[in-house]
Amino acid sequence: MDYKNFPFVIGWELTLRCNLQCKHCASSAGYPRDNELTLDESLSICEQLPDLLVNEVIFTGGEPLLYKNWHTIALALHNCGIKTGMVTNGLLIDDKIIENMKKSGMNCIGISIDGIGELHDRLRCFPGAFEKIIKNIENLRRNNINITVITSITHENILKLDDIYHLITQLGAWKWQLQPIFPLGRGNGNSHLHLTEEQFVSLGKYIFHLQPVALKKGLEIVPADSCGYFSSLDIPEFNWQGCGAGRFSCGIMSNGYIKGCLSWPDTIIEGDLRKDDLWTIWFRPDSFSKQRFFSKEDMNGNCIDCEVAMECGGGCQAMSLAKTGMWRADPYCYRRILKEKGTLLKNPH
User: Fold this and answer.
1) Do 236 and 346 meet the contact criterion of CB atoms below 8 Å apart?
2) Residue 58 pairs with which residues in a beta bridge?
3) In 3D, which of 322, 348, 318 has the Cα closest to residue 334?
């Protein structure tokens, strides 16, 4: 069966090496993968992306700034007309790195803030991390680099979101992305950080009510994976049309393997860029088949009897796989939880 769409957004894990051992890290980052891509191999991949209509590449890790040639790859993509961004823990940012960010045309930097002071340091297992990243964010803003703050929502920080909100409005961040913890990697081992259903719904209510207030202050609230699915708590601007992994986006692992989403388990591989180009992998008839071709019979868990299952697609597949081990069974679903509590849902259409 032919597939017609293109990977407009790509997440690129430059290295799995990391200078932190965060308690909630879904990748269990720390050491680099075996046989990570060389610079020449990476530049060759860059040349493939314009024909695939790639609009944006987000560098991730591990810690992408530990990959010494990140700026060379970013510049190559910029010269191809492709926007670039980066998700970093923010500890390594200095004047030289900021200079390279500007020279390579980087569009936006995502930096993690999981709490104020000691709370952030404890979740990141690095005393003094919070103070250092705040100084680095201030330096980035002085250099007119757009900042997205990313907060991993856990049992330990969900009641502290207002503190983070007030801080990042003062810092001049552009966006605030709130991501419920994935029970993968070290995040799976630290089950005390997982959200209850009540906490998850409280997060949805918090985002829903804060979003218009934050916009007036110039801050866009971005509800991330699992925050939504045809309920009264959905943000209209983020119109859910099913998980885009393998449909409109994909991930490049640091060893050249391709996944629909970098948050998916490493066992779900669609191809190897050392053996095939991305065009071949993307348009191969059996690629990403779990995502591209499914029916109502493919739904699992709480999604089996849902009246909007086909429109929704079963929620976030990374969360579904992490929590249930199945496709199309994301349990973190506002619609399901609110319906079970008897809360009126808006018309999904």
Assistant:
1) no
2) 11, 85
3) 348
Dihedral sign from CA coordinates of 123, 126, 128, 134: negative
The contacts of residue 273 (CB under 8 Å, 6+ apart) are 37, 41, 45, 252, 256, 257, 258, 281
Task: Write the single-letter amino acid at 25.
Answer: C
Would you say 55 and 107 are in contact if contact means Cβ atoms under 8 Å apart?
no
Paired sense of beta strands 147-153 and 108-112, if any: parallel
* CA distances (Å), origin 127, targets 93, 119, 142: 17, 10, 25
Buried b (16+ CB within 10 A) or exposed e, 197-212: eeebbebbebbbebbe
d(CA 242, CA 20): 33
Give the distance, in angstroms, between the CA of residue 163 and the centroid of all CA atoms in the same chain: 22
> Cα angle vertex 293, ends 290, 296, to 5°?
95
Q: Which two tokens stand for residue 174?
A: 């552009």
Helix 70-79 vs helix 39-48: crossing angle, to nearest 10 = 20
Selection from 228, 155, 225 nearest residue 187 by Cα: 155
In this predicted structure, the answer to whether residue 3 has a pLDDT above a threshold of 90 is: no
Which tens digit of pLDDT belongs to each residue from 157-201? 999 999 999 999 999 999 999 999 988 889 888 899 999 999 999
Distance of CA 209 to the CA centre of its chain: 23
Q: How far is CA 257 from the centre of its chain?
A: 18
On whether the CB atoms of residues 184 and 178 are closer than 8 A, the answer is no
Contact by Cβ (8 Å): 318, 272: no
- Can you tell me whether residue 312 is helix, strand or coil? helix
Judge contact between 334 and 201, C-beta under 8 A.
Answer: yes
Q: Which two tokens stand for residue 217?
A: 């202050």
The pLDDT tens digits for 128-154 are 999 999 999 999 999 999 999 999 999
- Neighbour count for residue 118 (Cβ, 10 Å): 10
